[in-house]
């Protein structure tokens, strides 16, 4: 009986893994880290976008985000019993349940913060004299009922209201409660009786039986109608501006029909609060559609079938979603550029890892092909070998990403990790299949200086050139305001880097040939030999150069984005403050305050200015801010900040009494009043004659578009006394300034103002993602360089050992390896810096950093544009050179320790 054939695949794989455990572990580590980063990116993006959406909803407040449905008072033509029944809790509850079911997903209603009840259309004034009357006007009351009052408040005094029997429009007395804030402002106590004027009946007596404390005052239950918890002092829009109190009386739910006998015009309402934990940025389109259906679509029609045709629906959710969508549309293209750039470099490094293994095993695989191994069988064995290592590593990286970032869509993370695993698994077998598709024992030499590019390569390079040019032109024309899914635009920086790499690879052999001739005339052999060795580099070394250039371009682009964001925030904060800090008051500052502030730690300079907002040129009606300054200190401040710099002599007051003061003005003021002298009257009845001699777009003392700046010594009266202090110093403490100023002035600190521009987690999240992308790209660039150097390490070590037997010293060996690695490193460093600079210059017109840099597009800085950051260009390039030199020195030192005989034997074994 013949034995069953035994598969040799598993033993062969196990043997190969045992033969090179270091390479297997290195591949596993590379796949695990790359899969973790790839899986973490979409989940981090989801987390920051969800947090940004919820933050936008939280900033808008429940008053805007709640869905308010309100109806008019029951029809007067209905029987009185029917009108009263429409306001009772059972009818309101039935309609509430039906209305809640109309809201379609993904918009989810939070039942704990939603409510229903009855509220008035008019607020009747009450005649009780014990309620405060600031200007003699009687207070008004907001008579309302709201469901589940006991579940959202704690009774501090007394008890909750209740009813005895069935309440009708003729009931003489009902009970109510008030919040502690309402009780304090309106002097209400437990047992107080408030008389509400009736219509066709005696006044309705409302007895207060309890004082409540809201359990969650910031929640939608209380904050959708803030008047329920906090009274307001209403100011009438008349010249005298009389005031009166308006407070809420919370009735028992069964007591609502009693309001029909007053002038409150009560009507039912239903208050639906969205659940903020269910808001996801990925559902933004569905959320907008759900709100639109409620506001003016089929949802509103359904609501009116359950209530009445007069039911009105209002919400600010559509504005919240639209504002967030605009912010996200400005940030997403930038994060897409970072993702594509770093992802491209990571893929190139994975391919390089497979290529390094294929080159290391070239002889072995060629021998297997010569002995009859099929290309399909060999490829399958190599795929199984790499998959055994890559698949568990990819699963480990995916698990780490899911544990590190529990929020976000899992499908995207799994897809990203799977793509990394498949790329790592296929890199070696595909490279081996392409190399060994023809059976041969000895391959031809493929020196970079001798091999001529094939037609296929030329066509591929031209195709990439056309695609990259189209992407760059599209980005320059359309900017980042196009669809966020435009992958071609997001790939533009990467494609520019790829094209530059292909061009440099074409130029590289020419440079080596040019350098080889003068190097041959040198007295020493190290220079000539190093260039000869650099020219012997395999032509397949194009991939490392592509990785380095793409990584350097992405790092330069990302660093420039971060630098542009930081500069935009700094400049916006400087425009808003005018210095590192400032103290402002509406009246002249205390005389001792400047000295007290000047002695604080971190204060290097102090500029006193007087600002008069109501200065009126030419006796006109239009007021212009007039700033009185000391020309010397203020000129120094403008020069330091770069805001409307001028020299002291240009603004100094001429000698002589009654002389015309030279003035610095904004362009709008200069256009309105010209360069002839004109009179400016001040609020203290004094006047001064000025003549505009300087025009500047901005000035530190005033942030507006209109201003006049003059020498303070030429003013008179209170206009000479400083009302503001502009403070300079890198370590200015806001707390110390506020302590020194006390209640005499308000304090604004530039650092605090700068932090205010980041008001959304989406902004800070995008910045962190970009930082992580830059660091990851730099790490992969270093790894690509190491892989390219490791590729030739055995051959270099053997060569160094042979040369030492011929008399080469250790120092000469180090110089040889360093000089041999320098040409490609210099090419990558210089090409990467140049490509990064060109990419930024090409793409800068299409990128607006305002969304990610500033809290609002309406900022004093205007548009924040991308600019070239020298540090981002220089540091990665210098890092490449240092790594290349460092690896060469370490290899020379290590080879010297091993000894020439051992190295030669190792080289022969290879």
Provide structural commentary.
With 910 residues, the protein is an alpha+beta fold. The chain has 4 domains: 17-63 and 332-441, no CATH class; 67-314, no CATH class; 444-575 and 758-910, no CATH class; 586-744, no CATH class. 53% of the residues lie in helices and 13% in strands. It contains 30 helices and 20 strands. The strands form 2 sheets. Strands 1, 2, 3, 4, 5, 6, 7, 8, 9, 10 and 11 form an 11-stranded mixed β-sheet that branches. It has a 6-stranded mixed β-barrel with strand order 13-14-18-15-17-16.
Q: Notable features of this structure?
A:
disordered C terminus; 20 strands; 910 residues; alpha+beta; disordered N terminus; flat; 30 helices; 4 domains; 6-stranded mixed barrel; 11-stranded mixed beta sheet
Strand content: 5-15%
Please identify the structural class as seen in this structure.
alpha+beta
> What is the residue-mean pLDDT, rounded to a whole number?
82
Range of helix content: 40-55%
Main sheet characteristics: 11 strands, mixed
Number of domains: 4
What's the oligomerization state?
Answer: single chain
- Span of the ends, CA to CA: 44 Å
Number of helical segments?
A: 30
Low-confidence stretches: 1-9, 906-910
Shape descriptor reads flat
| β-strand number | 20
The whole-angstrom Rg is 38 Å
